[in-house]
Write a structure and sequence with these properties.
The complex is a heterotrimer of chains A (about 300), B (about 300) and C (about 850).
Chain A (H helix, E strand, L loop, with lengths): L11 H4 L9 E6 L8 H10 L25 E9 L27 H4 L5 E9 L7 H5 L5 E3 L5 E3 L10 H4 L6 E2 L6 E2 L5 H4 L6 H5 L5 E5 H17 L6 E3 L12 E5 L19 H24 L4
Parallel strand pairs in A: 1-10
Antiparallel strand pairs in A: 1-8, 2-3, 4-5, 6-7, 9-10
Chain B lengths: L24 H25 L2 H25 L18 H25 L3 H27 L4 H4 L5 H20 L6 H23 L6 H4 L1 H24 L4 H31 L1 H24 L1
Helix pairs in contact in B: 1-2, 1-4, 1-6, 1-10, 2-3, 2-6, 3-4, 4-6, 6-7, 6-10, 7-9, 9-10
Chain C lengths: L8 H9 L5 E3 L5 H5 L2 E3 L6 H14 L5 H7 L13 H4 L6 E2 L4 E2 L66 H8 L5 H8 L3 H13 L9 E3 L1 H4 L4 H14 L10 E3 L8 H4 L6 E2 L3 E2 L9 H9 L8 H13 L23 H9 L5 E5 L3 H4 L3 H9 L3 E6 L4 H8 L1 H5 L10 E6 L8 E4 L4 E5 L12 H16 L8 H4 L7 E2 L4 E2 L1 H9 L56 E2 L27 E4 L4 E4 L77 E2 L17 E6 L15 H4 L6 E4 L1 H7 L6 E5 L4 E8 L6 E3 L2 E3 L1 E5 L20 E2 L9 E8 L6 H14 L10
Parallel strand pairs in C: 1-2, 5-6, 9-10, 10-11, 20-26, 21-23
Antiparallel strand pairs in C: 3-4, 7-8, 12-13, 13-16, 14-15, 17-18, 19-27, 20-28, 22-23, 22-28, 24-25
Classes of the chains: A alpha+beta (about 300), B mainly alpha (about 300), C alpha/beta (about 850).
The structure holds ligand MGD (2 copies), iron/sulfur cluster (5 copies) and molybdenum atom.
One iron/sulfur cluster binds next to helix 2 and strand 3 of chain A.
Organism (chain A): Phycicoccus endophyticus
Protein name (chain A): 4Fe-4S dicluster domain-containing protein
Subcellular location (chain A): Cell envelope
């Protein structure tokens, strides 16, 4: 096993065996400028011929897509929340379920309350993170998932046998099996486009440059500057997510600038690649196997009852 | 009153994807693999110690378990015709890959040895095959622990230290139990002891899983998986002690106790499997432990800074 | 803007990144509000009060850009003594005639300036010719539809008092007129707390002036009202007072609708104008070309050359048949007899006066107000041609319209013969789009159209060919206009499509030798030039399709003049001479754009100067000069007959020289500003199927407004049919505040029925804090938000919001109101005939007029 299983990694493509390779490419999604137009969702589907994913109203604000999946490789989340929420210190009340009806405005307080506009609407376009340590790829038994020369993670649908292992392995809940097809699908970071020097379809369509495509190193710097700028402007709750190579997956190839806690957007707060514990797992499997041998031996050696 | 610090979520939707593994295919495969793996050990011991009845039953159990398990595994694939793609690569990072490479030879060997045991043909080759299967059997019975644990599913991953033992123990109780049912008590001594030892191992490991993992133990306690796990434990305990105490004397007790243990083993697999599904479904099991981890890290960092 | 112009909104986001403050004034909290610095929710239909409040704030605090105002506007002009304001008449201007419900604008004139009709407009009181006599005589008073782009002509330059002290100067009138639009009044009318209002006022005024400019962006939230035109007028007054016009970063940006809807007004699909905003001649007054152009020949500014524009147009259409001897075929042009807006047409259909209908790229059965009237009109036709990409409701109303379900129409009894013709989409043909910035961008064909689909160009060309074939040899003078047309476009490709390039060349125009022209200043009135649309002249300069230029902005100067081509003359900001001070120097270094280069003796700068290029700032025109020659060096608004921006409009508008606030026709409250409730000059559509909810009705206590979603397009033919868009917004819904949900027992995700006197529809409920309850004094106002994209066909179907909307039109442009009142209750609507009974009950209880017939 040549490649490393967790922790920061200088050269992802190299680690996967690409000798000479282009720089690692990725996304910086700056949700502070996302306008929720969903052009990214549609462009992705158009380019990649991803099928329609259900026609039902969810009641989740303007999000009728719901989540990433085999037939949704970009997903724009819509979060309605009371203004000023992000600056609070504790975790506050649960945010489960449809938006809670705010207390009916009553009494004379309303006039002054309406100062700020009582609500904040967060939008964020989610996508496969193209993890430095991609659990989906590591657990794939067929080699269908592979690391490209750009450091991205791609499924080869002609090899995938639908074993489904990648699905629970992904700490972000990205990849899934497409019902009726049986193979796993997710964002390819437009492998076919970037190979030709083109920008991925979603980033190309994004009108506000919320989705920025480029060399990961450069994007991380840019994100740092943007964060500084927002902090200077006193924007509530701005933070980077997935940008840190020291994090549980060694940093994401697609990382984000969020305006609230990750879980508010449906993202795990501290994801860890499952293979971080792989050595321990195999050790315990080994020990348990030995234990079973021991049980066997003992069964035959033990007294005569 | 201090409000409960329930973390936020996105409309209560799961963060993780629900595993697409099918029921009963996968829990059944887990059971069959454990049964087959432990049975191969039992068979080899029986062969070495000259217990032909036990050997025959255990060989058939190993072969049939592996065969049916393979069927279950292939049936679980969403593109079963591409089963052989599993053997395109060998990846230690993928328990499923490792397992495929174990299952393939194990299935061949245990199948051959079972065939030989049933037909009486090529006894020597059957013996050799059986020995080979026994060498692989423990791995087959336990790798499934890593198979589940090497995912982001909280109830599985957090149990990565325990699941191999649960499955080893559960495999042993199943193998022992099946042998108790089918082998005359006189020859079934090792089976009863295996059953009892397996039960001990399983109970100890499962106790940690169901009670010591903090929040992610919850799915093992609640709802259907909770009921399955509890029933399995009771059956295992009862079956184990009954077999040990009265199995030798009474064929009936032996059969009933053996059946209880086999059933318990099945339930354990379904329980573990379904607890995982439940933990993937509820964002709490993802968010809360991760939040706690973050908080601890921040506190630690703060403490370091303060120093 | 983020919702409906997401691509254009990137520039707002860029401005924001550079430090701009973004303010969003909208009843709802939308995707725009989400990224704005400030969202100000207001009661729908009250924008004049809000903007009027801002005008008041500017005037009251002396925050106007005085030097700009004095020199570049008509603030100094003195208005005649006869003029009486809404201040004097409690909500009416002078000249109002109760009986006809319209204004005679004579008393609004400048002092000593003779009453002067607009460009192409005649004495409004003159009878309208014999066949027009059965036309309703109403709303022809100001005939604002006939005024073309520069506004009406005012011949004599008004007397001015540049100290702005004269009590009857426009500036003083303005001060008095807006005096009552205080922050307090704004709060009372709009439901906007004073504090919020003042924040907007401060932000706006602090960001206007010499060093800074502010821009207004609007679309149909402002225009779709019975007072729509006056809303835009209020914004114009404000921007003019603040000196934000003709300057970079300033302006009032109309965010237009459909792709190339701008193009379809430049080269119009409207009844009242010819290409380039040349007014449509009137039947009674314009017997010949000389009469037609006479009005403008004498006036100041570039409309003074209307004869050259008109003759060149006639030459483009009728070529060699157009000669000086036959008045260049001026007689071939159709004539107006009144207004013929889309809703007039529908009334004519219902009343049996209009037997045939072409519907090209439109879906009125869903998209136009009062859906039932639309469909009843369609059902009254003899024939109907629908050309569309998909099977839209307008073509299938006879089998699946709501009236079939309710039993009001029976398929077997509908006599309309429907022809549905598949149309090629924009990627299946080439041509140009003119965007909101007046910029033409050429589009190449990507694929051949499928099956029988053909471009609209091909359809019209073919239709013309066939008609001409049938008429061939006819000597009936009635047929001459068709037979004499230049109708000879080259065709190309496997489908023999007419070449759109050739059409653009014709629009651009050519000189006598057939060479392409490069500027409208080359157009002549003697028939030596031809030009299909004078403002587009130059788009094919040098024989090159200038609209097809795609040089990236980083390879060129600030305004990127080599990306596409903007009319007129590839100018990117209109009236940009105003970006320099009276002496021709930039107002500020930061905001420099176009200025006078004394050394070279010409205007220069980033953009093509919008001025006579060598006219010095101190130029004073000769007495009696006309046309462009009459413009002084300090008259930047060159299309106006006096070269000034008009704070006050002495002629040309049907509902007053200044904006006044009136309540929407359907409103839950009384007019707090003055004694007149609704626009007194409003255009009523008195039809049995157009009952209006009485103002202040308790039966219809809530306000509704309609709008778009980013995910869908207008009447849905282009989005409800596509899986990728349908899945994003799969069902018709309504948005309500938590308070309204509580009050009405509405459940998030459940169903609601929304009722007006016209109809009832059902929608899923989104309860959201993005809808705010507004407090007007001690009264709460609740608003129901309704996207209007759904209909019976497509992948996702639902009820149409337009079935709820009534017709009460702005008298200037005949647009409907997107705001009304309604009731909302939980649950689905009744089906079949029960629906009619349900609505009739509401109608009766509310006293809506006209009441339902008892015999139904
Ligand atoms: N995605 C998408 N884009 C489109 C279209 C589409 O259908 N879908 N249509 C195109 C067309 S044809 C057009 S005309 C443009 C229209 O573009 P917009 O005018 O932006 O479209 P609307 O959503 O109809 O209205 C805009 C806003 O006006 C608000 N509003 C309603 N009543 C009032 C009011 O009284 N005062 C104020 N201040 N605001 C009010 C609504 O809440 C809404 O948010 O969009 C174009 N772009
Ligand atoms: N309640 C309410 N009503 C409204 C509005 C509102 O805000 N509220 N907005 C109003 C506004 S601004 C508008 S613009 C109207 C829009 O209303 P409509 O114009 O009636 O509706 P669209 O769906 O835009 O219709 C355009 C049709 O043209 C077809 N099409 C597209 N390209 C071509 C082509 O190249 N050739 C041909 N022949 N057909 C083509 C499309 O498939 C589509 O069906 O709705 C108005 N109605
Ligand atoms: S986010 Fe999930 S699917 Fe994407 S690379 Fe990481 S582990 Fe794989
Ligand atoms: S489902 Fe396909 S991509 Fe996923 S792990 Fe299995 S073989 Fe690999
Ligand atoms: S990179 Fe390509 S595949 Fe991935 S989300 Fe964007 S458009 Fe889709
Ligand atoms: S295209 Fe850009 S702005 Fe639009 S939803 Fe996607 S990320 Fe947001
Ligand atoms: S649909 Fe076309 S016109 Fe409308 S915003 Fe998108 S790109 Fe612009
Ligand atoms: Mo429009």
């Amino acid at each position: 096993m040549s490649h490393s299983l967790f922790g920061p990694l200088e050269d992802v493509a190299g680690d996967a065996g690409h000798e000479a390779h282009p720089p690692r490419m990725g996304f910086f999604t700056d949700t502070s400028v996302c306008i929720g137009c969903k052009a990214c969702e549609v462009a992705c589907k158009e380019w990649n011929l991803v099928p329609e994913d259900g026609l039902s109203l969810t009641g989740m604000s303007y999000d009728n897509t719901g989540a990433l999946g085999a037939s949704t490789w970009r997903h724009v989340a819509f979060v309605e929340q009371p203004a000023g929420r992000a600056s609070r210190t504790d975790l506050g009340m649960p945010g489960m379920g449809p938006p809670e009806p705010a207390p009916a405005p009553d009494g004379p307080g309303q006039e002054s309350e309406s100062g700020e506009g009582g609500v904040r609407w967060l939008m964020s376009s989610d996508v496969c993170k193209h993890c430095t340590h991609a659990a989906c790829l590591d657990v794939c038994p067929t080699g269908s998932l592979f690391r490209t020369e750009f450091g991205t993670v791609v499924v080869q649908s002609d090899i995938c046998n639908g074993c489904g292992y990648c699905v629970p392995a992904c700490p972000y809940g990205v990849i899934d099996i497409r019902p009726g097809d049986g193979r796993a699908f997710k964002c390819t970071l437009c492998y076919d486009r970037i190979g030709e020097g083109l920008t991925p379809a979603c980033a190309k369509a994004c009108p506000t440059e919320s989705i920025q495509y480029g060399e990961l190193d450069e994007l991380r710097e840019r994100a740092g500057r943007r964060l500084g700028q927002l902090e200077e402007q006193g924007v509530d709750g701005a933070r980077l997510y997935g940008a840190d190579p020291e994090d549980g997956v060694g940093g994401d190839g697609a990382f984000f600038l969020l305006l609230d806690e990750p879980e508010v957007y449906g993202l795990p707060p501290d994801p860890v690649v499952t293979t971080r514990d792989l050595a321990s797992m195999w050790r315990h499997v080994g020990a348990a196997a030995l234990g079973l041998v021991g049980v066997g031996v003992a069964s035959f050696l033990g007294g005569r009852r | 009153m201090v409000p409960q610090a329930t973390p936020d979520s996105y409309y209560g939707r799961p963060i993780l994807k629900q595993p697409t593994w099918k029921t009963p295919d996968v829990p059944l495969y887990l059971f069959l693999g454990g049964l087959a793996g432990a049975s191969s050990v039992l068979a080899e011991g029986a062969a070495l110690t000259g217990r032909p009845e036990l050997e025959r039953v255990a060989r058939v159990a190993a072969g049939a378990g592996a065969g049916l398990g393979t069927v279950a595994l292939i049936h679980d694939l969403h593109r079963p015709e591409r089963f052989l793609n599993m053997l395109r690569v060998f990846k230690p990072t993928s328990p499923l890959s490792v397992g495929s490479w174990v299952l393939a030879p194990f299935g061949t060997l245990s199948g051959a040895s079972a065939a030989s045991a049933v037909t009486g043909w090529l006894p020597r080759a059957g013996r050799v095959a059986g020995a080979g299967a026994a060498a692989l059997g423990p791995a087959l019975a336990t790798y499934t622990g890593a198979l589940l644990a090497n995912t982001a599913v909280p109830a599985w991953h957090e149990a990565h230290r325990e699941l191999p033992y649960v499955f080893a123990g559960s495999g042993a109780t199943a193998a022992g139990g099946l042998a108790c049912m089918l082998v005359p008590p006189a020859q079934a001594g090792p089976a009863r002891r295996m059953l009892a030892a397996g039960a001990l191992m399983e109970l100890a490991a499962a106790e940690r899983v169901t009670h010591r993992l903090g929040l992610v133990s919850e799915p093992y306690q609640q709802g259907r998986p909770g009921r399955l796990m509890r029933t399995a434990r009771v059956l295992t305990a009862l079956g184990g002690s009954a077999a040990l105490v009265a199995g030798r004397r009474s064929r009936t007790v032996s059969v009933v106790a053996g059946a209880a243990c086999v059933a318990a083993s099945v339930m354990t697999r379904f329980g573990v499997f379904e607890a995982g599904l439940a933990s993937a479904r509820d964002p709490r099991y993802v968010v809360e432990p991760q939040r706690a981890r973050l908080r601890a890290r921040h506190e630690e960092a703060a403490a370091t800074m303060a120093r | 803007m983020a919702e409906c112009h997401p691509v254009g909104f990137q520039w707002v986001m860029e401005a924001k990144r550079k430090g701009a403050t973004v303010i969003h004034v909208d009843p709802r909290f939308t995707r725009t509000s989400a990224v704005a610095d400030l969202h100000v929710p207001l009661r729908a239909g009250t924008d004049i009060a809000f903007l009027g409040g801002l005008v008041h704030y500017v005037l009251d605090n002396d925050l106007d850009f005085r030097e700009y105002v004095v020199h570049y506007t008509n603030a100094a002009a003195i208005v005649g003594e006869e003029f009486a304001d809404t201040e004097d008449l409690d909500g009416l201007f002078s000249g109002y005639d109760e009986e006809s419900a319209q204004y005679d604008p004579t008393s609004w004139q400048y002092e000593n300036a003779p009453q002067a009709p607009a460009a192409g407009m005649r004495d409004p009181r003159q009878p309208a010719g014999p066949e027009a006599s059965e036309e309703p005589a109403e709303h022809e008073a100001a005939r604002s539809e006939e005024t073309g782009s520069g506004g009406p002509a005012v011949h004599a330059k008004p007397e001015r008092d540049e100290t702005l002290q004269h009590p009857r100067c426009v500036f003083q009138i303005l001060k008095r007129h807006f005096a009552r639009y205080t922050p307090r009044l704004v709060a009372e009318v709009c439901g906007v707390p004073e504090e919020d209002f003042l924040r907007v006022a401060r932000a706006l005024t602090e960001n206007s002036g010499r060093e800074r400019t502010s821009a207004f962006c609007y679309a149909v939230g402002w225009t779709h009202h019975s007072t729509g035109v006056q809303t835009i007028r209020t914004a114009s007054i404000l921007q003019t007072l603040l000196g934000n016009m003709g300057r970079p970063g300033g302006g009032i940006l109309a965010l237009r609708g459909h792709a190339s809807i701008q193009g379809s007004t430049d080269i119009p699909t409207l009844f009242n104008i010819l290409p380039g905003y040349i007014p449509m001649p009137h039947a009674a007054q314009h017997e010949n070309l000389a009469q037609f152009v006479a009005e403008d020949a004498g006036s100041t500014g570039f409309w003074g050359n209307m004869d050259a524009y008109t003759v060149s147009l006639l030459k483009a259409w009728w070529g060699s048949a157009a000669t000086p001897e036959n008045d260049f075929c001026f007689d071939y042009l159709p004539r107006l007899t009144g207004h013929h807006g889309t809703y007039d047409t529908v009334v004519n259909q219902i009343e049996g006066r209009s037997p045939g209908y072409f519907v090209i790229g439109e879906n009125p059965a869903v998209g136009s107000a009062n859906g039932k009237m639309q469909r009843l009109g369609l059902a009254s036709l003899e024939w109907l041609v629908v050309r569309d990409l998909t099977m839209v409701e307008t073509a299938s109303f006879w089998k699946d319209g709501p009236e079939i379900e309710s039993g009001e129409l029976v398929t077997e009894e509908i006599g309309t013969e429907v022809f549905f013709l598949p149309a090629a989409s924009h990627v299946e043909k080439k041509g140009s789009f003119t965007n909101t910035q007046r910029m033409l961008q050429w589009r190449h064909q990507a694929v051949e159209p499928p099956g029988d689909a053909r471009s609209d160009l091909q359809f019209y060309y073919e239709l013309g060919q066939r008609i001409r074939e049938r008429l061939a040899g006819s000597t009936d003078p009635m047929d001459a206009p068709l037979l004499d047309l230049t109708w000879d476009y080259p065709t190309e490709g496997p489908l023999a499509e007419p070449d759109a390039d050739a059409v653009l060349r014709e629009i651009n125009g050519q000189d006598a030798s057939g060479e392409p022209l490069s500027s409208y200043t080359q157009l002549a009135a003697d028939g030596s030039s031809s030009c299909g649309c004078w403002i587009y002249c130059g788009v094919y300069a040098d024989g090159v399709n200038q609209a097809a230029r795609r040089r990236p902005h980083w390879e060129q100067s600030l305004v990127a003049p080599e990306w596409g081509w903007a009319w007129p003359a590839n100018r990117r900001i209109l009236y940009n001479r105003a970006s320099a001070d009276p002496d021709g120097r930039p107002w500020s270094e930061r905001k420099k754009y176009v200025w006078w280069d004394a050394e070279q003796g010409r205007w220069t700068g980033e953009d093509v100067p919008d001025f006579v290029v060598d006219r010095p700032p101190d130029h004073v025109p000769d007495e009696g000069a006309t046309g462009p020659d009459a413009l002084g060096g300090r008259d930047p608004f060159i299309m106006q007959t006096d070269g000034k921006a008009w704070l006050y409009v002495p002629t040309g508008l049907a509902d007053g020289p200044l904006p006044a606030f009136y309540e929407p026709v359907e409103s839950p409250v009384g007019n707090a500003v003055h004694g007149v409730q609704r626009n007194p000059a409003l255009e009523d559509v008195a039809e049995p199927d157009n009952p209006l909810n009485p103002a202040g009705s308790r039966v219809f206590p809530y306000v509704f407004t309609s709008y778009r979603l980013t995910e869908h397009h207008t009447a849905g033919g282009m989005s409800r049919t596509l899986p990728y868009l349908s899945e994003l917004q799969p069902e018709m819904f309504c948005e309500v505040s938590p308070r309204l949900a509580q009050e009405g027992g509405l459940e998030h995700g459940g169903w609601a029925t929304i009722v007006t006197a016209r109809s009832a529809i059902e929608a899923r409920v989104l309860v959201t804090a993005r809808m705010r309850s507004l407090r007007l004094g001690d009264q709460w106002v609740e608003q129901v938000g309704l996207p209007y994209h759904w209909g019976a066909n497509g992948l996702v179907t639902g009820d149409s919001a337009n079935d709820l909307v009534g017709l009460a039109l702005d008298p200037n442009v005949h647009i409907q109101d997107k705001v009304g009142t309604c009731d909302i209750r939980p649950g689905r609507r009744p089906r079949g005939p029960a629906l009619v009974a349900f609505v009739d009950d509401y109608r009766r209880r509310s006293g809506a007029h006209p009441a339902p017939e008892e015999t139904s």
